[in-house]
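Weekly structure sync, notes
Attendees: PL (lead), two postdocs, one rotation student
Agenda item 3: pending single-chain targets
PL asked that the sequence for the first pending target be pasted directly into the notes so everyone works from the same version. It is reproduced below exactly as submitted, 303 residues in total.
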Amino acid sequence: MPDADLLAAALAHAERGWHVFPLRPNDKRPAFPDHPADDCTGRDPRCRAAGRHLGWEPRATTDPDRIRRAWSTRPYGIGLACGPSRLVVIDLDVPKGNATGEPTGLDTLAELAAAHAAGIDATYTVTTGRGGTHLYYRHPDDGPALRNTAGTLGPMLDTRAHGGYVVAAGSTVAGRPYTVDLDTDPAPLPAWLAELLAPAPLPPQRPVVVELPTDRTRAYVRVAVTREVERVTSAAPGERNRSLYIAAVALGQLVAGGALTADDAQSMLEQAGVAAGLRTAEAYRTVRSGLTAGSHRPRKVAA
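Predicted structure, written out during the meeting:
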C-alpha cells in the first residue's frame, strides 16, 4: 500500500532541488533497477529508452509527476542522489552495540575541526535509524568533483558525494526511522573539509596501448579481470578495501580504453568485494571511486 507521508517527504526533498529515487520498502537498497548491469535484457522501460542499462543515479529525479507515480504505488523508502543534488553528506556513525570507549563519527569530526582551528557550522541534519548523524552541505562550486569516502578521514566518518546516495528523512530502515534533526538550508561545505576530501591529482601519463592479435584480445581482458578479482578475494583482513580500490583503478583503465564496459567492471568488482567480506554499500563506493581514478589513465587493447 502507498504511504502518504513518504510521498509528501519525497516531494518536499525534490522541492529543495534534491534528486530522489525509490528504495525498497524499509530497506537501504534501490528499488530500481531490479537487475544488475550484466543481467540487463533491455526489457526495463528506462533501460530500453536509454538504449543501455540505467542505474539508480540517472533515474533520480525532482519531477513531481514521476515522484507521485512511483510513491503512489508502494511505500518506497527515499534515496537521495548526492551528486545530481550538489550535496556532500558527512555520515557520522556510532559504534555498533553502543560500545564504550570507541570514538564516534562526531568525535572524529570534532577532532578534525579542532586541528584546523574551525567550528562545525549548523546545517541540515538528519538522525539515522541507528542513531548516527547525516550533515548535509552544499558541494563546492569550484574545484574537482568530490567522491565518496569510507573511513578516509577517520573512524566512524564516511562521506557521500558524486556516485553516492543517502537514505533521506521520512524513510525507515529495518523499522528504524530517519528523522530531521535541524531543518535548515545546507551550509556550504567548509573549505578545510573540501580540501581534505579533494581527490589526489594524478600525474600526467600518456595512454597505454597494448598490442595484441585479434584472437587474443578477449583473452587478455579476461585474464586481467580474473587477476583483479583474485586480488580482492584473496586480500587479507584490513587490506580488502584498499585491494578493491587498486583493482578498480586497474579495470577503470581498461574501461576508459574501451576494452571493458563500466557496468561489467562495477558488477564484477562489487561482487568480489562482497565475497571478500565488505559491506555492499562500501564495495559499491570503493569501486566507483577506483573506476573514476582509473579512467584518467586509459589502457587501450589494440588488435
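Discussion points:
- Residues 208-212 have pLDDT under 50 and may be disordered.
- The first helix runs from residue 4 to 15.
Action: rotation student to compare against the earlier draft before next sync.
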